[in-house]
Amino acid sequence: MTFSLIDTMRTYNLVWEQQSAHSGESMPVGGHSLGCNVWVENDDLLLYFAQSGAFDENGSMLKGGRLRVHSTPNPFALKFRQTLELYDGCIHIEGVSEQGTVQIRVWVEVQRPVIHVDWSASFVADFTVTYENWRTEDRRIDSQSYELFQCKEVWGDPNTPIVFHKDQIEVTRADELLFYHRNLNDDLSFDREMDTQGMQSVKTGLHNPQYNRTMGGLLTAPGLEYTGTRRGRYVDTDFVGYQFQSPQPTSAQKLQITLYTAQTQTLEAWMSALRAIDHEAAEDDQAMEAAQAWWQAYWARSYIVINGTTPDEQDAMWQIGRNYQLFRYLLGCNYYGDYPTKFNGGLFTFDPIFAGQSPWSEQKLHYTPDYRLWGGGSHTSQNQRLVYWPMLKSGDFDMLPQIFNFFNRLLETATLRAQFYFNVEGAVYPEQIGIYGLCPTCDHGWGNTTGLPVPQIKYHFSTALEIGVMLTEYAAYTHNDIGEYIGYLDGIVKFYDGFYPQNDTRGKMIIEPGNALETYHPVRNPIDAVSGLHALLGRMLALPDRYSLPEQRTNWRRILERVPPITTRTKAGQTIIAYAESTSERHNVEIPELYTVFPFGQYGIGQPDLQLAIDTARLAAEDDTQLSHISWHQQGIQYAKLGMLAEAVNFLIRKLGNADRRVPVYWGPGHDWTPDHNWGGSGMIQLQEMLLQSHGDTVYVLPCWDKSIDVAFRLHAPGNTIIECEQLAGQLRRLTMTSDLPRLHVEVLPTSRSAGA
Length: 757
Fold this sequence. Notes:
- The two termini are about 30 Å apart.
- This protein folds into two domains: about 15-295, putative glycoside hydrolase family protein from bacillus halodurans (Beta-galactosidase, Chain A, domain 5, Distorted Sandwich), CATH 2.70.98; about 325-350 and about 380-755, Glycosyltransferase (Alpha/alpha barrel), CATH 1.50.10.
- About 25% of the residues lie in helices and about 25% in strands.
- The chain is of the alpha+beta class.
- The chain is globular.
- It contains 19 helices and 28 strands.
């Protein structure tokens, strides 16, 4: 190996030598299921902190609050330096003043949801530590207010007032503060949605993630004493601050914030579990070393380093390698979360005025730090999928069940919806899906009891097929048992079979009315559904026999035989894949035809009809809006899988190049929000596919890579396969493979092949 991973990761550290102007210039740190935005503003250290799964009564995803640390004298009077130390997973802040030096470390445990702020100085100082909360009073919101787009489940409700309920905050000891939000069970959006969508008679017993949910934590500040509250305003939001002060100057101060989100029968049970975590963390003097070791193992599991021997922040390809690792860090912060990492900001949103404007207007968003566009409890499938696909090649297999479990625990609701609304067997998942399995009512329509939402997603069911394909790929990569998810796979293909019972003269299913994603509708036999059914059913039938009964497999074969073939059309004199067997006006900017390439894998390097797919990639778009690189646009992945080198490189530079923000992976808002996690996820997938692909018994190394660009990588492939490769100065210096598949072989593709020539 000609490069050191440790040294390379340290070149990727974010280093700031100027303080931040506001929360939009905050630095990320996290672990377990926690994310913190950390910044120093006007010599105060500030943190926003958030935990996965913190869903309130309205479906908002709440932050835990904001921490402010002030010391006198000013520790940064002469020098300031803030560093995100990626390899160790922490933030290190250094200060110099006339009195001496200060070292501050902000880090998060990985095995427990605990945040630490460790302050050490060569001089003594007076400390004021303030917990700031903006949810101290109930707040009634007009149901038409754009602010409610942070909780799509209730936006636009014509019948019921919307109330953001207050938190509970209690000083439990002189140096300890308890804060929490326990949902009021008589004011849940779960009931509001079930009732307005006509399902009130069957809702009992369905999965209700809001019921008895409590989110909050403990702040402990040893040696400090509570001195009272103060009122203030940060950016656009009033708050109440709970202050702790040092009774005498000190040179060292440790702060601990323990967070816990759970559904418990009683508040006392939640408090007991919270205190147990807090006590365990306080007694563990090896927690920092354990967290560092976890992050170091995380980086060693897989990596991509570009132009690593000549680090240059102005080099576009070096930026891409750094940003790939930085974004993977954001994903790793929710490694042990119960809910999928949110596509619209993850755990790292900040005051919305700094995030960007609405995609539909120039409206300024003067809302609280809890705000995020597209909702906290809404997990739009088109977007969420892109956060998880890259975890296959990165080998982050332990994180993938987050998205599988999300859909699987909603299986009963999805099955009931199919029966209740459509009188068919199987399971139906809406494209816009909330945490309890219904379409958020602002997308479904208030007063609509048909089970079919607004036109753009009315017959859009195909992302459920894609999650199924991802699940079967997970099984192929890991050989892990997926028996618990077979009901999900069986249910989604059964739904198509029952919802579309008519056959054409060929004996093929007539998928009509249908949506080709959100872009073309209504249409007949949309390509995403056709391609998805072919891909998923083929993979289901290839699963080991232990996963299904003989009669199930017989039914899967029957359904597969009903799926219509992929159809083509002519454009500019070329035959290309058609988005459907009928035509419609275009309503969005997706390119459904290319879903045959990714995610459904019917075309690509080493597969038949490669030129057909290449011609489709070059000609299918109707205008440049479909060729954008922002947010979830994924044609870069498809260029890579087709070996279209020039197009792939051009797209990659736009996709994974630096964001126009202090943190280079805080892309957005694009179509969604800032930081845009499906933007980063789709970029990760593309870069991986440019370096490594597989089909059948062949692994393709550097299938879409400019051989003049230095690269080193460690990536995963099916069959517990790990490929390590290093190319320097146009020469392959190292290539190793380990695999469970005895017939697997490696093919290194030449540049000419990579260009699709």
